[in-house]
């Protein structure tokens, strides 16, 4: 499904300085450098607009806007705040370099975030799916670099050791896979969060930022923090860790 990408509401590119300086952390060398860092070169138009927009001018998406976007399947319209996008691109570049001989971003996610040795030694190819050995095959973590959304919205990622089947003709989930995910979400989150405060989606293949490990997104509006700690087993998003 195609999508147009207008400027984020209330945002204006900063034309007084090079785009890579606009949202660079104040202490970062790129904040004053005349040379663009490699991870900000040749950006797609959408990312370039975001990176060029002063962070304080960016308007966060509201919960009703998030729900409508997901229901209309306009997933490509999600974007990070300018400051988070800057740090996210730097982070990905750094990790790709660090893990270039250890599986790249996939290796980093499996080793450092999921703590999965996958495929596992001795795995006989058993069929993995929701409802069976979920403690081993499914993990819920914070989205390390969430989209630019209302701060009351908790953005989680559900990672699985099994594929979530897409329809090759459309690139979207099959009805069977959609039903299985919906059942899992209701069972896992529905008992603690009102249904109208839960939305989930799986990005189209061409807009996934992490393509190598299967996952889908869950957003919760203003959930009980204790429940979030429980469901993520105390996880802390890397985007927060990196700024400390």
TrEMBL record:
GO terms for cellular component: cytoplasm. Residues 1-31 are annotated as: Disordered. Transmembrane segments: none annotated. InterPro entries: DUF3605. Pfam families: DUF3605 (PF12239). It comes from the Eukaryota. This is N-acetylglucosamine-induced protein 1.
